[in-house]
Amino acid sequence: MSLKRGWVLDNPKPALFIFVSQKSKARAAIAPAGVAKHYAKQLRYPFCLCLAFEKENGGNGFYNEICLLGHFDTICRPQFNNRKNFIAILMQGITMSDTLLENYNYDIPKELIAQKPSESRENSRLFVINRQNSSFYHKKFSDIVEFLDKDSALVINNAKVIPARLFGKKETGGKVELLFLSPHIEKDGRIYSVLMKPFIPLGKKIFFEDKYECEIVSKKQNGEAEVQFNKGNILDFLTKRGIMPLPPYIRRKESLAADLKDFDKNRYQTIYAKEIGAIAAPTAGLHFTQEILEKIEKKGADIICLTLYVGWGTFKPITKSDISKHIMPSETFVIDSANAAKLNKCLAEKRRIFAAGTTSARALESLAQKSGKNIDGVLQIEAFEGQTDIFIHPGYNFQIVKGLLTNFHLPKSTPLMMASAFSSRELLLKAYKEAIEKKYRFFSYGDAMLIL
């Protein structure tokens, strides 16, 4: 195996690069050499290796060599006893890297993507992961009561989904669909941020029922647009005329969406939804019934409410191969003084805090960062209302959440990465594989998972 120095790879074909820090930490990326060079400089990593570069002659296989790129600082040499040890560390970085987007991919049969929820909320299945011994259990959701008692607390997100999907017509009569990204936030002059399909030019208007109309006033590179309405009371208008913003994998053509409008308004909503303004449901909460919540309280567990208005940030796709470079759009979250006091009491009593959903978990961990204080060795938080752009992925150290209730998430999605941070990527994907084998139902209208 040869060792070559310098930026010798000008070939535009992608190769597998390993970037290694002075502390022997490795990151991996698949990219052309020019991109890798830029990436290495940004990271300020002292050296970079290229492995498995495709042969230029188009033949099968790869060069059996390692090309050393960038600087090989003498400070780094003592970190590795020999080349064999050096390569072993690098290969571990390849196979175990939690920052590669592709490592969060998996195949899901289409028939396991739930198009409707279970007939009754509590009859969903519950896949239980025990992190301590890496074991799996298969339950019904109603069995969740078994896992909560006087030494625990359940935190729920009471955000209410607004029918934020709205159909209108162009001046020519063609159809246009808007998805309001923050319908509870009105900018000066009745301006709202939306996603639009199809895009229409700036200055053009869209016409709706009840004499509502809007003009396209700006477009952004990330696909968002801003529209200005001629009338106010948009929340009331959406409640009356809008359609629930179901994810695109739940197939609802316009006519079917209208036919199931009332059904989805009921089932794509938690029973405790109260604070209107979310554009996606905190889906882990869809399985709860009033009876289950009452049983949990009877066992002595506290139920704590907060609000995170689920927005585009939760489901915006990651486009970078290195997930640590992803930037989450901000979302609004709130916890009032009464619920903050309940949470502080549970923290002081060292109760096990269960987050019902990744949105509840994000809000709790954001609270720890934004209003948390260490008082006599105990984390305490304050009532809070503000924004969070926290992106939780493997490597994150949870400060409040000790148990996570969640659904099965899309490949390469930020909720999948949060669940991976709580369990471990390897354990979670192993559980997903078993769930697929046992025909669990996936995604928003699917079954639930409890990570202990």
Short description:
The chain has eleven helices and 24 strands. The chain has helices at residues 33-43, 83-96, 234-241, 254-259, 261-267, 290-298, 312-315, 337-348, 358-370, 414-423, 425-437, and strands at 2-5, 15-20, 26-31, 47-51, 65-69, 125-130, 135-140, 152-157, 159-161, 165-170, 175-180, 191-197, 205-207, 213-219, 224-229, 275-278, 302-308, 331-335, 352-356, 373-375, 378-380, 384-388, 403-407, 448-451.
Can you characterise this structure?
- With 452 residues, the chain is an alpha+beta fold.
- It folds into 3 domains: 2-97, no CATH class; 110-161 and 268-451, QueA-like (3-Layer(aba) Sandwich), CATH 3.40.1780.10; 165-242, Thrombin, subunit H, CATH 2.40.10.
- Helix content is 24%, strand content 27%.
- It is built from 11 helices and 24 strands.
- It has helices at 33-43, 83-96, 234-241, 254-259, 261-267, 290-298, 312-315, 337-348, 358-370, 414-423, 425-437; strands spanning 2-5, 15-20, 26-31, 47-51, 65-69, 125-130, 135-140, 152-157, 159-161, 165-170, 175-180, 191-197, 205-207, 213-219, 224-229, 275-278, 302-308, 331-335, 352-356, 373-375, 378-380, 384-388, 403-407, 448-451.
- Strands 7-6-24-23-19-8-17-18-22 form a 9-stranded mixed beta sheet. It has a 6-stranded antiparallel barrel with strand order 10-11-12-15-14-13. A 5-stranded mixed beta sheet has the order 1-5-4-2-3, with helices on both faces.
- A hairpin with a 4-residue loop joins strand 6 and strand 7.
- Helix 10 (414-423) crosses helix 11.
- The chain is globular.
